[in-house]
Every structure is written in C-alpha cells, then in structure tokens.
C-alpha cells in the first residue's frame, strides 16, 4: 500500500474542493455503495470463515494460516470503515472524517495490508512445502511455526509503518474546521525516495509478489507431476486439487489487487501535480478510488474462493447454515479438502502402490482390521483342498501389518 495514500486524502480535504453533482454521484455509487458493500460482505465472510475453519486450526498449519489471514483482512476492512462516508455532505462540513481517515485509519489499513501480505506468503509457503518438499512437511508444516512466523511478521510490519502515524497531525482553525499539519520529514527528498518509495515497495509489493509467483509456479508443476505418478483415491485427488486451486486463487487475486499501487505511483510521475489530477473534474478523479476498492476486494474475496474451490468448506457451510449434521459415505473424504492440509501428498507416497498404501492405512487403524477380520471367512481353499486356517485375532493382524509397513519404510 502506497505511503502517500493518506497524504492524498489529507491534501484533497484541505483544498476544500467543491464537488459537482457528477462527482457526488460517482462517489455515492463507487465509494458509499460499492465500498460499503465490500466492507460489509467482507466482514461477514471473514466471520463465517473463522467460525468454520477455527474448529480445525489446531490440527493443520494451513488452516491456522487461513484463520490468521482472515483476522488481518478483517482489520483492514475495519480500518476502511470511514471510507464510504468520507465525501458525504455532512462529513465535508468539517472534514473531520477525512482527516482522521487520512492521518490514522488508512495508516492502520496499510499495516493490516502488510500483515495480510506476509500471511499470504506463509500460506503459500505451507502449500509449497507440503506439495514440493513432502519429506520436510513434518518438520516445517506445524501450527507452532506458523504462529511464530506470523507474530514476527506482524511486529516487523508494525515497526516498519510506525513512522507514518507521525507524519501528519490534525489542527483546528478559528472557524471550527480541521486541517492537517505535515512533519518536516514529509518534504525531505531522501526520506521520500528511500523510505516511501524504495523500501515501501520492496517490502509491500516486490518481495511478496516475486516469492508468491515462484512458489505458485513450483506448486503447479509439482502438482501436475504428482497427479500423473501417484496412485491415490479419488477423494484425495479432489482434496489436493481443491487446496491447490484455493491457494493459487488467493495469490492471483492478491497480486492483481496490489498492483494498483505501483500503477498509481507511475501516474503520480506522469500527472503533475497529482493532487489536482485526482480532484473533482481531474483526469484521475475516477481512478483515485480504485486502489482503495482493490484492497477492500482483496480482503473480502477469500470467503468466495473457499466456496468456489473447497468442497469440504462448502459442505461445512451448508451444514452450518441448515444446522444439520451432514451424513454420507463421502463426508470424511470431503472434509479433507480444508482439514488435511499439512501434507496431502503423503496420503500415498511417491512410488507406493495402492495395495501397499492400503496396508499402511490398515496398520494405523486397528478398528478397520477388526472389521475386516469379522467379515473374512474362516476356511481357505488352497489348491482344491479344503483346509481350515486358524483364525488370527485383529491385534495380531495389526501387529503384522505394522511389521510390513516398517519393512517397507526401511
């Protein structure tokens, strides 16, 4: 998020531009209606996502990353709460709403947006390790590691953006109106070049986008390769596909929405003075709201992504809305879509046949061995001679199966 966004709104409010009817209508439709809709839908969607996913967050590092991402997105949407009412007639009488938004709340939105960027990187990294480095998933894909990285990232983002909260202050004039007062650093060329441009775009855009693109491409390649070589059940294949589609969709939307900030910076160099261009009647007046709407859309879109690509999430959502317990032979399989996220590729390791995979599953579940034992006949036909084989207990079979698995792994 650009470090001069707050300055734009503060400067625009300070000029006390008279809005024409087309400008007022545009802001009412785009700013109030569309912006307010994105905020309300986003808050509702993130709340439902947290309600559903939080039940499994302690079991999966990916689910934990998704829950933390929903919290960061909620913080950004709450920070943008003054946006739909900033240009209302009553708000422009004193400009207090616009002043507070430009000086404080939009800076809080920048912080939340940076945390969201770091969490998106953590989420994609978890999928990258699970799909591309399954042998390291047990060590790296843990809830504890995700929590620690998320905490360190949040602290780093707060420290990095802390100076921006002190660049402007709000003063009151004799008429009871409000106006901004800028810190001398705002006019410092070195500060603007090094901090506001180079470091800000490096941290908020270049590093996240490059890393996300690299991991996403690697995930797609590895997933395509595994789908051609691994023999697994249809349910596990669906779970892997759903998880990959969800993570890739989150990355695509993130990169698209964040790209409006560099575009805006380029336009600032082309259209000089930029403050006049974004004012009512200016060439960039209609564009000036798009970067903000893009960030709000980015923080509101994950709920729709889960509905479109995660079958298990859809099933749990329907169950939650209808308040009934979903039953059926595929319930357990569909739940893997949003719960078994640590290492889906480990369902059937590479090179392991379906029969050997079934042996592994039976070894880990003595109850299945017991049920199979009860269904198995006691007599065995060997070479046309009827012989009665002694019945082996389920505990013995489970022990033998574990011995087979140990031999295979060795």
Show the helix and strand layout:
Elements: H1 5-14, H2 21-53, H3 61-79, H4 96-132, H5 137-140, H6 143-161, E1 168-172, E2 178-182, H7 189-229, H8 234-258, H9 260-270, H10 274-277, H11 290-300, H12 302-309, H13 311-322, H14 331-339, H15 354-363, H16 366-375, E3 379-382, E4 385-388, H17 394-409
Antiparallel strand pairs: 1-2, 3-4
Helix pairs in contact: 1-4, 2-3, 2-11, 2-12, 3-4, 3-6, 3-11, 4-6, 4-7, 4-8, 7-8, 8-11, 8-12, 8-14, 12-13, 13-14, 15-17, 16-17
Word description of this protein:
Residues 335-350, 383-396 have a biased composition (Polar residues). One of its GO terms (cellular component) is membrane. Residues 330-350, 375-410 are annotated as: Disordered. It comes from Capitella teleta (Polychaete worm). It is found in: Membrane. The protein is mainly alpha-helical and 410 residues long. The protein has two domains: 5-321, Rhodopsin 7-helix transmembrane proteins (Rhopdopsin 7-helix transmembrane proteins, Up-down Bundle); 352-410, no CATH class. It is 68% helix and 4% strand. It is built from 17 helices and four strands. The chain has helices spanning 5-14, 21-53, 61-79, 96-132, 137-140, 143-161, 189-229, 234-258, 260-270, 274-277, 290-300, 302-309, 311-322, 331-339, 354-363, 366-375, 394-409; strands at 168-172, 178-182, 379-382, 385-388. The strands form two sheets. It has a two-stranded antiparallel ribbon with strand order 1-2. It has a two-stranded antiparallel ribbon with strand order 3-4. Helix 3 (61-79) packs antiparallel against helix 4 (96-132) and helix 3 (61-79) packs parallel to helix 6. The two termini are 52 Å apart. The relative contact order is 0.12.
């Amino acid at each position: 998020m650009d470090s001069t966004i707050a300055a734009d709104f503060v400067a625009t409010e300070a000029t006390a531009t008279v809005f024409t009817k087309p400008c007022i209508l545009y802001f009412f439709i785009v700013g109030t209606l569309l912006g307010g809709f994105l905020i309300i839908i986003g808050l509702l969607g993130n709340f439902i996502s947290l309600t559903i996913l939080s039940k499994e967050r302690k079991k999966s590092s990916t689910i934990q990353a998704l829950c933390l991402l929903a919290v960061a997105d909620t913080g950004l949407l709450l920070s943008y709460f003054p946006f739909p009412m900033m240009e209302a007639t009553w708000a422009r009488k004193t400009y207090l709403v616009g002043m507070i938004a430009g000086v404080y709340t939009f800076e809080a939105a920048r912080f939340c947006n940076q945390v969201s960027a770091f969490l998106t990187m953590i989420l994609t990294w978890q999928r990258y390790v699970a799909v591309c480095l399954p042998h390291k998933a047990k060590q790296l894909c843990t809830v504890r590691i995700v929590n620690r990285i998320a905490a360190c990232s949040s602290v780093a983002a707060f420290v990095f953006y802390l100076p921006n909260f002190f660049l402007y202050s709000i003063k009151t004039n004799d008429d009871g109106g409000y106006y901004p007062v800028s810190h001398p650093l705002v006019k410092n060329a070195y500060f603007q070049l090094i901090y506001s441009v180079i470091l800000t775009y490096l941290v908020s855009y270049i590093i996240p986008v490059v890393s996300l693109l690299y991991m996403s491409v690697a995930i797609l390649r590895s997933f395509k390769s595994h789908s051609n070589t691994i023999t697994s059940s249809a349910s596990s294949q669906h779970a892997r596909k759903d998880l990959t589609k969800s993570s890739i969709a989150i990355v695509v939307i993130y990169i698209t929405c964040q790209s409006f900030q560099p575009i805006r910076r380029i336009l600032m160099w082309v259209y000089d003075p930029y403050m006049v261009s974004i004012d009512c009647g200016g060439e960039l007046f209609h564009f000036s709201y798009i970067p903000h709407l893009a960030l709000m859309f980015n923080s509101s879109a994950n709920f729709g992504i889960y509905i479109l690509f995660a079958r298990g999430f859809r099933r749990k959502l329907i169950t939650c809305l209808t308040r009934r317990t979903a039953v059926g032979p595929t319930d357990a399989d569909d739940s893997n879509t949003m719960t078994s996220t640590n290492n889906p590729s480990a369902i059937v390791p590479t090179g392991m046949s379906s029969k050997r995979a079934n042996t592994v599953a039976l070894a880990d579940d003595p109850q299945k061995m017991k049920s199979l034992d009860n269904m198995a006949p006691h007599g065995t036909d060997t070479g046309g001679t009827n012989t009665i084989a002694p019945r082996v207990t389920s505990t013995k079979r489970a022990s033998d199966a574990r011995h087979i698995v140990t031999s295979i792994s060795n």
